[in-house]
């Protein structure tokens, strides 16, 4: 069962679990896409919907904003940036504004009875970068983070935040196509290495002959990891 919800600041596409809702997954699209577009792309790659018996999947859509790589044209992007490069500074003003909007989405799940330790954050490309900012700078108590074909800038605020933190951090699941010409595989590797050095437990999967795209093997590997991080809870039986 799926529905488009427009309450609050962010429009989102929701795929409800088939049984009792005990965990939530927030899946962020790449630049220029939408929540519904990402869900449709995943369905096309897997030849079926990504669904779980107990996990609600939320696909938010970034509000349109001027995007510098498109010469200031409006695009559904989570934040602005000068260019798609690991070497340029982050546009923290737009990143932080979107962290606030996405925090409202997390708070909605918590208010509905889902613990932060039963919420996963992740995304594709720019969405994966956004998820890393959201988790490691604002919500270190979520169940985990996943980033597909994503990277962080070399002087990222995420690295600066982690240098000041102690305690357990959410595990990172990362995938990257080795043939990616838009977001280089090496950028993803460098991001993973940096986060590992800063105390994050990481998993990194490389996929030969995969460009800047989703692959079936990648999504199946991700699904296995999601179920490992958010296993179905046994319902308490009334005696």
TrEMBL record:
E.C. code: 3.1.2.22
GO cellular component terms, A-Z: cytosol
Keywords on record: Acetylation, Cytoplasm, Hydrolase
Enzyme class: hydrolase
Phospholipase/carboxylesterase/thioesterase domain mapped to chain residues: 13-226
Subcellular location: Cytoplasm, Cytosol
InterPro entries tied to this protein: AB_hydrolase_fold, LYPA1-2/EST-like, PLipase/COase/thioEstase
Family indicated by similarity: Belongs to the AB hydrolase superfamily. AB hydrolase 2 family.
Name this polypeptide is given: Lysophospholipase-like protein 1
């Amino acid at each position: 069962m799926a529905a488009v919800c427009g309450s609050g600041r962010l429009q989102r596409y929701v795929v409800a679990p088939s049984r009792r809702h005990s965990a939530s997954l927030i899946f962020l699209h790449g630049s220029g896409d939408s929540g519904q577009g990402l869900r449709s792309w995943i369905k096309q790659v897997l030849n079926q919907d990504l669904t779980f018996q107990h996990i609600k999947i939320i696909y938010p859509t970034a509000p349109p904003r001027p995007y510098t790589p498109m010469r200031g044209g409006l695009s559904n992007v989570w934040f602005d940036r000068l260019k798609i490069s690991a070497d340029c500074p982050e546009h923290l003003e737009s990143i932080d504004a979107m962290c606030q909007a996405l925090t409202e989405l997390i708070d909605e799940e918590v208010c509905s009875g889902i613990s932060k330790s039963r919420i996963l954050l992740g995304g594709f490309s720019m969405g994966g970068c956004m998820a890393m900012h959201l988790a490691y700078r604002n919500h270190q108590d979520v169940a985990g983070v996943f980033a597909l074909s994503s990277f962080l800038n070399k002087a990222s605020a995420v690295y600066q935040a982690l240098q000041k933190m102690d305690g357990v951090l959410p595990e990172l699941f990362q995938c990257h196509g080795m043939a990616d010409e838009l977001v280089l595989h090496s950028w993803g590797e460098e991001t993973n290495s940096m986060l590992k050095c800063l105390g994050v437990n990481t998993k990194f999967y490389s996929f030969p002959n995969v460009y800047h795209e989703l692959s079936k093997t990648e999504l199946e590997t991700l699904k296995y990891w999601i179920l490992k991080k958010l296993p179905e809870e046994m319902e308490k039986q009334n005696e």
